[in-house]
Please model this.
Amino acid sequence: MPIERRPLRDQIKREVLTRLRRGDFPAGQNINEGQLAGELGVSRTPLREALIALEIEGLIESQPGKGFRFAPVSPKEYQELCPVVAALEALALESSDAGYLAETAPRLLALATEFDASVATQAEIEQRDDEWHELLLGGCRNERLMDLLTTLKASLRRYVHLLIDDETEISRSASEHRLIAESIIAGDMAAAVSALKANWTSGTERMVEKLGDAGV
Amino acid sequence: MPIERRPLRDQIKREVLTRLRRGDFPAGQNINEGQLAGELGVSRTPLREALIALEIEGLIESQPGKGFRFAPVSPKEYQELCPVVAALEALALESSDAGYLAETAPRLLALATEFDASVATQAEIEQRDDEWHELLLGGCRNERLMDLLTTLKASLRRYVHLLIDDETEISRSASEHRLIAESIIAGDMAAAVSALKANWTSGTERMVEKLGDAGV
DNA sequence: GCTGAGTATTCTGAATACAAAATTCCGACG
DNA sequence: CGTCGGAATTTTGTATTCAGAATACTCAGC
Model:
């Protein structure tokens, strides 16, 4: 039994990520290293290492002399990130194992339909959407690509919860998912890929509006 | 005049990157923090911060308790990275400013033609190729995308120099560049995008062969 | 009451210190 | 001659310390 031994910086990074996802840290808030290190029960050294890793991944920013802060949200970032994720998920789908897709598509369709009907909390909705995309792309064997997608989506997640408070967004997303699944079942990969891209780009205008309203 | 003040970790990262590009560090070699810190005249703390940043970017690996090592090269990584870069450069080209492209295409064509004729050292060839792609995508205003491409290409660069020792590779690359430029001039962006993708994928099989030969 | 200089405090960035784990060295034993 | 065990050494991972920059505070002066 290989006992898991992970460096402290990794555990810290994971913990900060989960807290970020929980919404514990307001976007744009600057980070007091001493305080946060104290809360986590570690010294500043591994905490800073974790923060630097998160900075490279785009979730944290730093200014020389001023320290770190959680990256603020902006329409610009969302607009930049969405097409990148869309392109990479499209690539992942294109390079997926055909057998896996054939096998999985029916479940994807079922999940999308069921999702449409169910009423759930915001957190559940986010999780369901994540799981659906995870299942969709589970046949992609390009590890580097999947890792990249994971980190990019972590940046996007901060925006998604701004978007899906709307009932219409949920049903729109569900119908887009159905379209993707149906295209795969029909064997039309080109249609599936473009439907997937549409799924990522469809929310952009509304998001930009909302962020504009929020005065961010 | 804003005086530039960069954190030590950034300068270290830059220095390690240039040394990597020069080929000072054999791929797979593990890193002695104390020794490297001494060479650079800094303490281990900012050096480790730089190494962690490079690890996230994929140029360095780490094993718990064993420290860092420069990421080894492998056919797998090359095969995984190439389509990702291809997809992202394609996206960058698609989302480029049309005016910029119209203005730049003739120069791109000229450079590609001239490149074909010139004989140069390996380093020059690499640099020319980089500059050509940089010019091609200079009209893309998606900063996040361009940053991502920069880091991914840094990982790829370690492979390129294995590939371009061959005379035929050079002329093939030049003709691919010409095709891209000509497609843009003709206004056929779809053709330009697919030619760009071809430019990135064309070397894959040969690379895999060579890496296999090298016994890596 | 506001402003602004000057001081005190806090915080970051970097160096150093330390404990634990990994590696190397070396000799005994088969 | 190889190899196994164990001490000696190196190296990593984390904590602590320190210097300097940034921020907050105080209190004249207007």
